[in-house]
TrEMBL record:
Residues 1-57 are annotated as: Disordered. One of its GO terms (molecular function) is glycosyltransferase activity. Residues 391-508 form the Glycosyl transferase family domain. It comes from Ambrosia artemisiifolia. Pfam families: Glycos_transf_1. This is Glycosyl transferase family 1 domain-containing protein. Gene3D superfamilies: Glycogen Phosphorylase B (3.40.50.2000). Keywords: Glycosyltransferase, Membrane, Transferase, Transmembrane, Transmembrane helix. The chain crosses the membrane at residues 81-100.
Length: 1042
């Protein structure tokens, strides 16, 4: 049952017979319960025998002191007599509170069937009186340093919102409010939902199109296209699984969890020994950069799964939502009559913290201690007039609470019907609705605003609360409620008098209640919205080309979007009052589906019952173990006997023809399992092969099949099953290192193909394509593929490069106010440092002096440029391009290695950009090489297949730097580097160039030729020596016995 929706009573026969249809208790809101099966007890007529005997003993000890004080009181007159009586009562309650703790403690711990039965390990263990629970959340680094950097921004930040619970409930109200404000900040949003819902039109009207996710569609979404993903609810678990696969592991993820379904199952997992389930969920929680909870209690209940990424953003309309729903379905006057209260009775409800303890209820005792003067003044025996009744709501409904309470009431001379107890496991909404005044008497300074106070304010009941910081933060004293100092009990009496007049609520009380109701409607809404804005600002590290949010506009704050839910909320409240939401979630939550999949031998849903009873029933006794051991022994003996009998029995293996046929069939199946797929067979004789580079199983759905394509996996473990994909790691060992695999990415795959190319590629044309091309809908269509194959077969052109994925395919760069050139687009994609990095690497590569220009000019003719490594060129040209790229990548890496901070990437700002540091610059390198080496560049429209030449060679004359891109020069430079590598003359420690491909120069060729000649001559020498030995000694055959 999640916090996002109140759940009705699920249980007792007494409750069903005494309440009307559609009553919804609040108890499921409180996650820490003690005895959920006990029935409620309001006011009892007699105390237990143990409590009575305890009263007699205490009375004998205090009689003498009271008699002395009684004689001295006759000398005091007027108001002094009243204050002296109040002082005596305070001391009396201090003494009685100790007795109360002992009586409650003994009854809770040892009384059979009482409320002291534990519920297993919890966050409350180890707490002592005076201490409090506090959740310390993670601190995030401010983004001010990023904002101060110069950025060339051209697009809005992209966010994917995955709604796992698209229902008409408080959770959807919060998410819709937050997302609407995010859009106002300038975020570009894409909404996904795990299921269709009646609220979908509201989302589409307010935010935009909502895509419904099916189990098959998760693999067809390119999550890397988003700067961050926000997931709401545990029900979007499948989306988390897709984000746990490469290449999406670096996508920033925020997971909002508002349900307590999994939290309630975690203790059961521990008791059953299901450590694999805890490890499974902990691994899923670890994937998220941040796990967000709406209140502090949830963060503590999920503490078993905490990996240091938990934070709390308080604020939820669940209490207001549930209270308004309950108020529409119930009548205050009828509930008063049902519970035995008259219209003239003044009901004061004393509520405590939802964090109460198994052993001792300190809130209970402290509240009684502080309310001593108040009770004495308004509930004494013999008073005539308005009947004041004080109801204490805390703990559970065990009789120990009520017995101890009545014991104190009798000792103070109070009427027995003036004091009562009500457990939190009952219908607390009923008590809050019929109350005239609600007094918050908790001794715990909680981090979150008390939910019972919020519900009381929603019902229009005036509240009195101590001056805790969380209450003073939202409630203005004298306007929305009365706040008194917890260290000054006399202020409580003054606060109480302000709300009452002649035994009824004063006009001032009605004004306070009305203001409190308005406050509760949107309580903490502003803080919740602002909290999510700051979270995204501090957690999401945006790419260098993205606009920083907050610079567009400021978010609208203050209220939940109640207007968007008005009609739906009324319909839901009026037609679902008798529906048990908790029963629905039991059978539909993904938590139980995972339990069934991982533990099929046991029905995990028995955990809905009393878990302690289940564990008692399932515990095996000594006799049970003996029986199991005997059964295992008998089965083992029988198995051994059967094996011995089978071994002694003659078997008929069948005729030889059948055995031969079976053996041939097995060989055929074995051959088929190792045989290449149909695409490899069709690829035979094709003039071109396009290698699709991918890294991780998450990219599998975007890869093509057929004769034109072949996969190129950058990870051995992530290769597709039953395919002939090339293993790049096996061909180039440097890709086994995560660092270099990430910074090179697709270029590293090309290096692996170029390394001993003849072993894998024997066709005249070669092409490459990143998996992202298909993910972004810019891969070749069937028509464009036929055009490409026909063009390369005709060989109408010379040295040509065909490309189909161009820079700025989605048009975002065109929206920039800057003048777009090749180098400006490169700067945008590389945090503004593309030109600097390129010319430094180019100067180092060719050993150019500082005064020589090192940035090759690129035309501004409006033509297209290649991106995403999606192109086809002749195989010899590819080898020449790889020769140039290896030297350039080495020069670029040497600049990085010689920098003062080797881990800092200057070509990106986000996590993904820094992880793949060189990729965006190397992605554009083919354009510089093709332009200045006088290659013809042809753009193929990926949809229509039309061909269009870009940057004609005739127009490049006078602009090309052909001297630097001459093949003869590149070969000589390659040989120089190979000679240095062969001699061990490394320019720096981690030299990249020798590890990216073949190392070959003339000296190595001569040495290998000499080695082959030496081996050949050694073989001839050995043959001659053997021949001479035979001629000298002769050949003698050994005897048969020898």
């Amino acid at each position: 049952m999640g916090q996002n929706s109140p759940s009705p009573h699920d249980g007792d026969d007494d409750f069903n017979t005494t309440t009307t249809t559609g009553s919804y208790p609040i108890r499921d809101r409180f996650r820490l319960k003690r005895n959920p099966k006990s029935s409620s007890t309001l006011i009892t007529k007699s105390s237990s025998s143990s409590a009575s005997s305890l009263t007699d003993r205490r009375r004998s000890h205090g009689y003498g002191a009271r008699s002395v004080l009684y004689r001295k009181l006759f000398s005091v007159r007027g108001t002094n007599w009243f204050y002296l009586c109040m002082l005596i009562v305070v001391f009396a309650f201090a003494f009685v509170s100790l007795v109360l703790q002992s009586s409650i403690g003994s009854s809770m711990m040892f009384k059979p069937g009482g409320g002291g039965q534990g519920i297993g390990p919890s966050v409350r263990q180890g707490l002592e009186f005076g201490s409090s629970l506090k959740f310390v959340e993670r601190r995030f680094v401010s983004e001010e340093g990023v904002r101060m950097k110069d950025r060339v921004v051209v697009r809005s930040p992209r966010l994917a919102i995955i709604v796992g619970n698209m229902k008409i409930d408080p959770s959807s109200l919060v998410l819709l409010t937050v997302v609407k404000n995010l859009r106002g900040l300038g975020y570009m949003l894409q909404i996904y939902a795990t299921e269709d819902s009646k609220i979908k039109p509201t989302w589409e009207k307010t935010i935009g199109h909502v895509s419904i996710l099916s189990p098959e569609s998760y693999g067809h979404i390119d999550w890397s296209a988003f700067d961050g993903v926000v997931v709401n609810s545990l029900e979007a678990h499948d989306a988390i699984l897709s984000l746990m696969q490469e290449p999406f592991c670096s996508v920033q993820l925020i997971w909002i969890i508002e349900e307590d379904t999994l939290a309630n199952r975690l203790p059961f997992y521990e008791e059953m020994g299901w450590g694999h389930l805890i490890a499974y969920w902990k691994n899923a929680f670890r994937r998220a950069d941040v796990i967000v909870f709406p209140d502090y209690s949830l963060s503590m209940l999920y503490s078993v799964l905490d990996t240091g990424n938990f934070i709390v953003i308080p604020g939820s309309p669940i209490d207001v939502w549930a209270s308004e729903r309950y108020q529409k379905a119930h009548s205050k006057s009828q509930l008063r009559v049902k519970n035995g209260f008259g219209n003239d009775d003044m009901l004061v409800l004393v509520v405590g913290s939802s964090f109460f303890y198994n052993e001792l209820s300190w809130d209970y005792a402290v509240a009684m201690h502080n309310l001593g003067p108040l009770l004495t003044n308004y509930a004494r025996k013999g008073d005539v007039g308005t009947s004041f009744k004080f109801l204490f709501v805390c703990g559970n409904s065990s009789s120990a609470y009520n017995d101890a309470l009545q014991d104190i009431a009798g000792r103070l001379g109070l009427r027995r019907d003036s004091v009562g107890h009500y457990g939190l496991d009952g219908d607390v909404d009923e008590m809050l609705l019929i109350a005239d005044i609600v007094l918050y008497g908790s001794s715990q300074d909680e981090q979150g605003f008390p939910s019972l106070i919020t519900r009381a304010m929603t019902y229009g009941v005036p509240i009195i609360a101590p001056d805790y910081p969380i209450i003073k933060r939202y409630v203005v004293d004298g306007e929305q409620g009365i706040i008194f100092s917890k260290d000054k009990p006399d202020e409580l009496m003054k606060s109480f008098k302000l709300l009452t007049s002649n035994g009824k609520l004063s006009n001032y009380a009605h004004r306070v209640a009305s203001s409190g109701k308005l406050l509760a409607k949107n309580l903490q809404a502003s803080e919740c919205i602002d909290g999510y804005m700051k979270l995204l600002k501090n957690v999401l590290i945006l790419p260098s080309d993205s606009i920083l949010p907050g610079l567009v506009s400021q978010p609208k704050q203050g209220e939940w979007e109640w207007d968007l839910f008005s009609e739906e909320t009324y319909h839901w409240s009026s037609n679902m009052t008798s529906l048990s939401l908790k029963e629905d979630t039991r059978n539909t939550s993904v938590v139980y589906d995972i339990e069934e999949d991982t533990t099929p031998s046991l029905d995990s849903r028995i955990g809905f019952q009393d878990e302690s009873e289940i564990m008692l029933d399932d515990n095996l006794t000594e006799v049970d173990w003996d029986v199991l051991s005997e059964i295992d022994s008998l089965e083992e003996t029988e198995r051994v006997e059967l094996e011995e009998i089978e071994g002694r029995t003659d078997k008929s293996y069948g005729v030889w023809e059948e055995l031969y046929r079976d053996a041939k069939r097995a060989d055929k199946l074995k051959f088929e399992s190792n045989e290449r797929d149909e695409g490899e067979l069709e690829r035979t004789g094709q003039p071109v092969c396009i290698y699709e580079v991918y890294n991780g199983a998450g990219a599998w759905p975007f890869l093509h099949h057929g004769s034109l394509y072949r996969g190129l996996s950058l990870s051995t473990k992530s290769r597709r099953l039953r395919s002939d994909d090339v293993d790049a790691v096996g061909r180039l060992s440097i890709l086994n290192e995560t660092y270099y695999r990430d910074i090179l990415l697709e270029m590293g795959g090309m290096f692996s193909i170029a390394n001993r190319l003849d072993n894998v590629h024997k066709r005249p044309w070669i092409g490459f394509q990143s998996w992202r091309a298909a993910a972004r809908k810019v891969s070749l269509s069937s028509k464009a593929e036929r055009v490409l194959e026909g063009t390369v077969q005709q060989k109408l052109r010379g040295d040509v490069i065909y490309f189909w994925a161009r820079v700025d395919m989605d048009g975002e760069l065109a929206q920039s106010n800057h003048a777009l050139t090749f180098w400006s687009m490169c700067d945008i994609l590389n945090a503004g440092n593309c030109r600097t990095a390129f010319q430094d690497a180019f100067r180092r590569m060719y050993a150019l002096p500082s005064y020589v220009e090192a940035l090759p000019p690129m035309p501004e003719d409006g033509g297209h440029w290649s991106s995403l490594h999606s192109w086809v060129m002749p195989t010899p040209s590819f080898l020449e391009f790889m020769m140039f790229s290896r030297m350039f990548a080495d020069a670029l890496d040497s600049l990085h290695m010689n920098a003062s901070t080797t881990t800092e990437c200057l070509l990106g700002s986000s996590v993904s950009e820094k992880q793949h540091c060189y990729c965006r610059l190397l992605e554009l390198l083919v354009n510089v090489w093709a332009y200045h080496s006088a290659r013809t560049m042809v753009y193929i429209d990926p949809n229509s297949g039309s061909l269009e030449e870009q940057h004609p060679v005739e127009q490049r004359k006078g602009f090309m730097w052909t001297k630097y891109f001459n093949s003869t020069l590149l070969k000589s430079m390659d040989e120089d580097l190979a000679e240095a590598a062969d001699d061990g003359d490394h320019p720096y420690e981690r030299w990249l160039w020798p590890r990216t491909g073949e190392v070959h120069w003339q000296g190595i060729f001569e040495r290998e030729r000499e080695e082959r000649y030496r081996i050949k001559m050694d073989k001839k020498r050995k043959q001659k020596e053997k021949l001479f030995e035979r001629l000298a000694i002769g050949y003698k055959q050994k005897t048969l016995a020898g």
